[in-house]
Amino acid sequence: MSDKLKKKQHNYLLQPRFVTEHQYDSNMRQIFRFLLFSALIISVASCTERVEDCLDINATNFRPDADKACEGCCVYPELEIETSQIFKRIGLDTNSFRADSVFVTSENDTFQLNEARFLFSDIKPYKGQELFETNDTIFIGVEGEPSQVLFVDDFTSITTDGFTFTVGEFRETGLFDGVEIRWGPGDADVVVPDSLYGNSHALAHGQDSTWNSTDGYFHFYLDINEEPGNDDSQRIILVSGPGFDQILNITGQFESETGFNVTIKLEIDYFVLLSGVNFENQTDLQIRETIKSNLPGSLSVQ
Fold first, then answer.
1. pLDDT confidence of residue 262
2. DSSP string, 84-135
3. What is the chain's Cα-based Rg?
4. Residue 125's closest CA among 296, 264, 300?
5. How far apart are CA 46 and CA 54, in angstroms?
6. Rounded Cα gap, residues 6 and 69, in angstroms
7. Rounded distance, CA 100 to CA 97, Å?
8. What is the pTM of this model?
9. With 0-12 CB in 10 A as exposed, 13-18 as middle and 19+ as buried, what is 82?
10. CA 248 vs CA 63, 123, 276: distances in Å
């Protein structure tokens, strides 16, 4: 390249560059757009409402995307008893133990079921030798006590017109080996607070409850017709009183997972429960004692 050409190129590079008015306006518009967009993003981010919900992983309504823990909104798993109530006579089909059905006992005694009810309490799943309780509690008056006493509220009424019954809040997890259950209310002299009257609580007084004014709370209620289809042959067997309290150890594994309800699948075989019962020839006391003796073998965890 000649010296003359080099000098011309050098002079061109040293010449000042002028921005036209059009170019200036275009650049300013781009900068304005950028600043406006940035301000909008910051504004939206600052105005977004923070999500307040349950951040306890043990709860059934755990919400991992929440920004802030709520106060008192977490709902925890419940212990449930799911029943399979059957009449499993050897050599015959297994029938559901339901109202208006006709059954034959081991003594070839035919009867028609109207209704049956159990009252259970002190329901404690166990692992090895360790027992676990539900977290619900209730204040109940007791005869002879000056004030109400705090009980674990695991009183559960099981009837033949239902399948699943809630015991109470339960947060323990893992594999359980079985469940310990008390047959009856535990303390026969409990006095139910007025707040429970008429509601669905197991201790509530009402038409379909496990209580009456004569006998108090009862462990088991059986309403049958000794002659199927004949309402005049109705007979009611009530098992009640401290002498019938039993602590039942029912083996059978079940699992509890974090954040989910725990279900114990309890099978009640009424053929076993009523084995040896003869409604025609036995007194109420004989029938009650037979039922008490048969009860442990009639329950199992599936």
1. 93
2. EEEE--TTS--EE--TT-EEE-TT--EEEEEEEEEEEEEEEEEETTEE---S
3. 36
4. 264
5. 23
6. 74
7. 9
8. 0.78
9. middle
10. 39, 10, 21
Tell me the average pLDDT across 113-139.
93
Nearest alpha-carbon partner for 121 in 150, 170, 156: 156
User: 208-214 contacts: CB < 8 A, separation 24 or more?
Assistant: 208/117, 208/159, 209/157, 210/117, 210/118, 210/119, 210/157, 210/185, 212/238
Q: DSSP letters of 263-297?
A: EEEEEEEHHHHTTT--TTT--HHHHHHHHHHHHHH
C-beta neighbour count of 241 within 10 angstroms: 15
User: What CA–CA distance (Å, rounded) separates 189 from 178?
Assistant: 29
Each residue of 254-291: pLDDT tens digit?
Answer: 999 999 999 999 999 999 999 999 999 999 999 999 99
Position of tokens 């974090």? Answer: 258
What whole-number distance in Å separates Cα of residue 199 and Cα of residue 115? 20
In single-letter form, the type of residue at position 196 comes to L
Which amino acid type is present at position 189?
D
Phi, psi of 16 (to 5 degrees): -70, 145
3-state SS class at 180: strand
Phi, psi of 142 (to 5 degrees): -130, 135
